[in-house]
Structures are given as structure tokens and as C-alpha cells.
Write a structure and sequence with these properties.
heterodimer, A: about 220 residues, alpha/beta, about 25% strand, globular, B: about 300 residues, alpha+beta, 4-stranded antiparallel beta sheet, 10 helices, about 75% helix, about 10% strand, elongated, binds adenosine-5'-diphosphate, binds magnesium ion
Chain lengths: ~220, ~300
């Protein structure tokens, strides 16, 4: 699903955010990317979603070579990846329902399918009764779950999350983690960037640690 | 699939209308500015059309007066008149004899007594040549005039409506002017719409970023902005049409009074169906194009962070 060989990311400033990363994550695996603040976790995820391009090396995601991916192919490439953000990036002027429906509308899903799939996604995150509400009226944990529902509504084979529990207390963090574990058990490849050791301990999944842009540790796949 | 496609466009259309109506003042101002900008060339066009229609009415009276030599006999004049009548460019010829000319002059001038004391009629015989309907264009009149001047019996040939020719030349010039003005104002409309859409794009920067992140194509992101531009241009054109109509309504009374003073039945006419269609189509098209140019440039700059 994801294969990095000797990947470097150097920013125009000359700073190497990632150095010589070799990584292989199989379809259906779940892994945590950890490391100190500034280690390069977000940069790694931004490479996978083609927000940034590798400056050296070869990176394959979903069978696509990220260095060669054409600009106009990027939207279609991203439809195969669900992304959850620390600040959830919801549209504040739209209801929960409309936020979750957005990926379906963007990809031109059949109109009759949309309500069913939105409600299925909302049900998974336990927010079916909040579909008419606006994000600002929800708690932090609920907002994050709306973000997760939006990320999975298209049923992408790959789910990425950048510090998904960064703003939440431990009880809410656990609930969010349970959601990701659930997706993992349903065969979705899940990759979570976090510096929360509690989350990693509890999940008992593969851990990839970055240190100043270099791969410091890779626990390898968990059986 | 096709049905889905149209449904999607209809959804975007109504969504865009909703967005525009959510900021009614800003939307109205944009539409008003476009309306005024388009009303200027549209109004000039209508004015020119009316003047041209008026000139066509005069042109039908475009006649040539032939002042003949004093010493011609009635028989000579009859012969000449017969020759001229046969010219293809001529419809008919009136003859005003020296006596008739004098009588009319006496009546009109009020110098009756003074003229009566002259021992000789100073006025020449006159033939009034009415050109055929197919020869009323200025250039045709001009060549007919040249032909008539060749007759030895003719002392002086004069096109009575020389100034119609000048008016035509001026109208041609004015039309060119309106064309240039229209082009300039079309660019102005592009800029107005472009700026409006630029602000709309920047206002929705976060939304665009998110849509790009979840796999929205540029075509998808562009669509509501294109609709927005086209709708505002379209409404602006309708506004321009209303403004021109209002202007004509205000002018029609005075014009009618002025015309009736000259014994004319002239009434101002609004632009025709096709011109209206062209105006509204141009408005929509300019809106779309202005939006397309603005969105194209600004969308590139907005990438997810
Ligand atoms: N656009 C950029 N230009 C220059 N340096 C950047 C840019 N983005 C990130 N960095 C640097 O790259 C390093 C890694 O950043 P990041 O991947 O966000 O770390 P993490 O998510 O692990 O905290 C940081 O030192 C950061 O300052
Ligand atoms: Mg980070």
C-alpha cells in the first residue's frame, strides 16, 4: 500500500524534514508514526497525500509513484485516501450532514446513495442524532468524530490521521482510537501520526519512530 | 449518468443563487455596476438606431433640384424632363415653371409688391427630380447628381439633402465609436466580475483547500464561481436593459412633442428582440469569462497546507 525507498524531503529553505526514509506498509496494516515535535511526522503524511512531493527517492502509494504523479491526477489519487486532521478542518457554515456528504458530492456519487452512506458513516461514529447541527455547537470530541466520518464516507482503503487526539482528553482519545481500531479490523489500512505514548501503548500496533527526519525505529508489522 | 450530470449542475446553480442572496447588498452592487456599465453602450446603440431610422425617413425625401437656364422654351424643358424621367435612378420629375416659382415665392416671402414692380421674372425654371426608391443611398444620389449636371440645359443641380449624407457619415463614425466603447466597457465588466470572484475565492479559501484535500477537481471547485459570475453578468444585462427602457420612457414624451412640431409621427423604439438577446447573452458570457479568468489564476495559488 505504501512503499518508501530512500525518500528525502528538503524544503526550499534547505532544511531536510525527512532523510533517507525506507518504509513499507502493507494493505490492511495499522501503524503509528511517532517522534518528537518537529520530527517529520506531518511531513511524512503530507507526502502520502501528495500535498508535498519527495525531493529524492521513490515513494509509492496505492500503486502510484508520487514523484511522477501528474497534477491533474492528484484529485483522483486523493479520493482513495481518507484524512483526519488535528483541527478537523470542518466547514463551519454547513451542517454535520453536509460536511460528511462533501466527499460524496465532490466525487459525483449517485444522489440516491448519498443519504444512506452519510448516515452509515455518522452511525459508525455515533453521531446520527446530530446530523442537522452545525460544527460549532458540537464538543471537541464530536467535531473530531465528524471529521472521521467525513474521512471514511467514501470507504477509502487508506486512512491517515495527523494527531487526531491532540486536542482531546484521554477518555475521548480512547473513543477515537477505538474507532480507528474498528476500521483497521474492517480491513482499512490505518496510519496515525501521534506523540501520545498512551495511545500507542493502548493500541498495541506497529510503531514507526522518527527522529529529526530520520527513521529511528520500526517495530515491524504486528501479527 | 447524464441525468446525474444535469442534476448536479442544477444543484450548483441553486446553491450559487442561495450564496448570492445571502449577501444581497454586495450582490446587488455588483449587478448594478455591471448594469450601468452595459447600459451605456446599449443606450447609445438604441439612440443610434433611432437616429438612423429617422434619417431613413428623410432620405426618402432626398430630391435634386435642377435650376435650368432662363432662356429655355417650354418644349425644351418638356423634352429634358422626359429624358430624365427615363433614367433608372429616377422615380418622377416635377416641373415648376418660372411663373409658378414666382407665384410661390411671392406668397412665401411677402415681397409680392416689390417683385411685382420688376419688369422681368428673375427666377429660373426648376425641375425637381425624385430618385427611385432603390437609389436613395447617399452614394447613389451623388452619382445621379453628377449625371444630371452633365445636361447643358442645367444651370445648377443641387442635392437638397446634402446634410443627410453628412449625417450618414457621422452615424457611421458614431457606430465605430460605440463599437470601441463597447469593447472597452466589456473589458471593464470582465474586471468587475473578476474582482468580485477573486474576493469570493479568497473568502472561501478554507473550503477550497478542504475540497482539494478530499479529491475535488479544479473543474468541480470552479463551477459555483463560474455560475456566480454568469448569473451576475446576466442580471447586470437585465438591469442594463431596464435602465435603457427607463431612459427611453423618460425621453419618449419630449421626443414625441418635438417630432409633432415638425409634423412627424416619429416615435422612439426600444431595442429589438435580437439585440435584447445579444445584450443578455453578452452579459452572461462576460460574467462567465471574467469569473473563469479570475478563478483560473487564484485557484492555482490555493493549495492545502
Ligand atoms: N514548508 C516548510 N518549509 C520549511 N520547513 C518546514 C516546512 N514544513 C515543515 N517544516 C519543518 O520540518 C520539520 C518537520 O515538521 P513536521 O513534519 O510538521 O513535524 P511534526 O509533525 O513531526 O511535528 C519541522 O522542523 C518544521 O519546522
Ligand atoms: Mg505535526
Amino acid at each position: 500500500m505504501i512503499e518508501f525507498t530512500h525518500v528525502f524531503k528538503r524544503f526550499p529553505s534547505g532544511f531536510d524534514a525527512l532523510r533517507d526514509i525506507n518504509l513499507r506498509i502493507e494493505a490492511g496494516e495499522m501503524a503509528f508514526i511517532t517522534g518528537h515535535s518537529g520530527a517529520g511526522k506531518s511531513t511524512l503524511l503530507r507526502l502520502i497525500t501528495a500535498i508535498e512531493r519527495p525531493t529524492r527517492g521513490e515513494a509509492l502509494v496505492n500503486g502510484r509513484n508520487l514523484t511522477k504523479l501528474q497534477r491533474r491526477r492528484i484529485p483522483y489519487f486523493r479520493r482513495e485516501i481518507g484524512v483526519v486532521f488535528q483541527d478537523h478542518k470542518l466547514l463551519l457554515d454547513r451542517t454535520v450532514y453536509d460536511n460528511v456528504a462533501l466527499p460524496l458530492i465532490v466525487t459525483g456519487a449517485d444522489d440516491k446513495e448519498i443519504p444512506k452512506r452519510v448516515r452509515a458513516a455518522l452511525e459508525m461514529v455515533g453521531l446520527l442524532d446530530k446530523e442537522r447541527m452545525y460544527p460549532v455547537t458540537l464538543s471537541g470530541g464530536e467535531q473530531q468524530r465528524v471529521g472521521i466520518a467525513r474521512a471514511v464516507v467514501n470507504k477509502p482503503p487508506l486512512l491517515l490521521a495527523d494527531e487526531p487526539t491532540g486536542n482531546l482528553d484521554s477518555k475521548l482519545s480512547d473513543e477515537i482510537l477505538d474507532l480507528f481500531l474498528d476500521f483497521h479490523h474492517h480491513g482499512v489500512t490505518v496510519l496515525i501520526a501521534t506523540h501520545d505514548p498512551h495511545l500507542i501503548d493502548r493500541a498495541r500496533q506497529r510503531v514507526i519512530e522518527l527522529n529529526h527526519g530520520e527513521l529511528a525505529l520500526d517495530s515491524g508489522a504486528v501479527a | 449518468m447524464i441525468r446525474n450530470y444535469f442534476l448536479r449542475h442544477a444543484q450548483v446553480f441553486f446553491y450559487t443563487l442561495g450564496q448570492l442572496s445571502r449577501t444581497p447588498v454586495a450582490s446587488f452592487l455588483t449587478v448594478a455596476v455591471i448594469g450601468i456599465t452595459l447600459a451605456l453602450p446599449a443606450g447609445l446603440y438604441v439612440a443610434l438606431e433611432n437616429v438612423q431610422r429617422l434619417a431613413r425617413g428623410w432620405e426618402d425625401n432626398g430630391q435634386i433640384s435642377l435650376f435650368l437656364k432662363q432662356d429655355l422654351s417650354d418644349a425644351d424643358i418638356e423634352k429634358l424632363s422626359g429624358k430624365i424621367r427615363k433614367l433608372p435612378a429616377v422615380s418622377w420629375v416635377d416641373y415648376i415653371s418660372r411663373q409658378a416659382a414666382l407665384a410661390e415665392f411671392k406668397k412665401l416671402s411677402g415681397f409680392g409688391d416689390a417683385l411685382g414692380s420688376l419688369d422681368r421674372n428673375p427666377l429660373p425654371p426648376v425641375l425637381i427630380v425624385h430618385p427611385a426608391g432603390s437609389h436613395t443611398r447617399p452614394d447613389a444620389l451623388q452619382s445621379l447628381l453628377k449625371d444630371l449636371r452633365r445636361y447643358s440645359e442645367v444651370e445648377l443641380a443641387q442635392l437638397d439633402l446634402e446634410w443627410v449624407r453628412r449625417l450618414y457619415a457621422m452615424l457611421d463614425l458614431a457606430k465605430q465609436g460605440v463599437l470601441i466603447l463597447t469593447a472597452g466597457l466589456a473589458v471593464a465588466v470582465l474586471l468587475i466580475i473578476g474582482n468580485t470572484i477573486r474576493l469570493a475565492v479568497l473568502n472561501r479559501r478554507d473550503e477550497i483547500e478542504i475540497i482539494k484535500l478530499i479529491g475535488g477537481t479544479n473543474t468541480f471547485i470552479r463551477r459555483p464561481f463560474l455560475y456566480s459570475g454568469a448569473i451576475q453578468g446576466f442580471l447586470g444585462a437585465i438591469m442594463a436593459w431596464l435602465l435603457v427602457g427607463l431612459g427611453l420612457l423618460i425621453l419618449s414624451g419630449p421626443v414625441h412633442r418635438l417630432a409633432s412640431l415638425y409634423g412627424s409621427l416619429f416615435v422612439v423604439e426600444n431595442m429589438g428582440f435580437l439585440a435584447t438577446l445579444a445584450l443578455i447573452g453578452t452579459g452572461g458570457l462576460l460574467g462567465w469569462l471574467g469569473s473563469r479568468l479570475a478563478v483560473g489564476r487564484h485557484l492555482q495559488a490555493i493549495e492545502p497546507r
